Amino acid sequence: MTTTGCNLLPSQEAQAQSDASAQGERGAAAVETAIAETGTLSDPIEYTGTTGPVRRVSLRSQVEGRLLNLNADVGDPVSQGQPLAQLDNRLLTAALNQSEAELAALRSEVVQAEAEVSDAESRVAQAQAELQQAQIEADRLQGLAAEGVISQQEAERGRTVAITAEQAVRSAQEQVRTRQQAVVAARGRVEAQRAVVAEELERRQFSSLTAPIDGVVLERVTEPGNLVQPGDEVLSLGDFSAIKVIVQVSELELATIQTGQAVQVRLDAFPNQTFEGRVSRISPAADPTARLVPVEITMPNPTGQVGSGLLARVTFQSMQAQPIIVPESALTTAEEEKASTLFVVETQDGAATVLARSVQIGDRANGQVEVRAGLQPGETYVVRSSAPLEDGQSVRLSILSETAPQ
Predict the structure, then answer these.
(1) Which one is the CATH code of 46-54+238-316: 3.30.43.10, 3.20.20.140, 3.40.50.2300, 2.40.30.170?
(2) Spatial CB neighbours of 183, under 8 Å, sequence gap ≥ 6
(3) Is the pTM of the predicted complex or chain greater than 0.85?
(4) What digits encode the pLDDT tens for the residues 259-288?
């Protein structure tokens, strides 16, 4: 099969045919080779954004007070739970002391109410003893009246005394129940006051502000001596264990981006480094005017070298397998049929030969062609040759050639 293409070296193209016919047997043609690699025909779209901490937290006061001291400055690293600021807590301490005094008074009321219950129970026991004695006496008088020793009127008086004693027992028992209810009420007031004391104690603890996360101080919002109200911000903290970058992506490109997709991030502040990140969040809402969708990128920052506010240049890595890209000069076209062919180089015992191989091509751009089938990454192929090539022909590699390791 005679083929054309595989562009000739400029200095040798004119005499290629005459040299080939003059040879009794075909000599080794000079070829320039390259190694098949995957890629894209066009450079990926680059988006710009600004670096920031993966989390930003405001340290705010929960109570009112004058700020006595602030133990952290901008750029200082802090650990979770580390004391950072102290408010004047004298008023809070006074309120706590008052609540504790009221609690002590209520506990005394409980003790007194319990003592009154004991007294009431003692009176019940005494009334029951008197009732028992009155019943015995009434029974004795009734027996004497039946024998005619005393009058029936005297026996009735004994029965009246017994009835009165029984009423006294019921009254004493009612007093016990009343006193017990008073104890329950007093204990309830004690529990309520305990809650007040616990709340006042917690409020006083709020006068000491501690770091809610591990991070770095981004901003001192106020200074010692200022009066701080509940909800006022004192410090701004950032978690730089990872970096967040938000870029605005066109709605037309959104279909090629997925959560978890790998991205490359370059920072002007670190021109010699490329950082790896991933898409952590895609906003469900686009800008109705610009039709841009915010996409959040998160990248690890274990050393903490990347700070906030740096210009970031983000490129998204394709989720699809990339085709092999070869120069158009590597393709040949058969005269009999319009099939694309390139020559693959095989080396054995130091001798190089070329094998013609049909390939399926895709898009073309800027002198490059996609090879979608017929060539594997890492194979060596001919970019250009000094003469037309045939299948199985011996060749010699130019000094510009790339070869795959054997």
Answers:
(1) 2.40.30.170
(2) 110, 113, 114, 117
(3) no
(4) 999 999 999 999 999 999 999 999 999 988
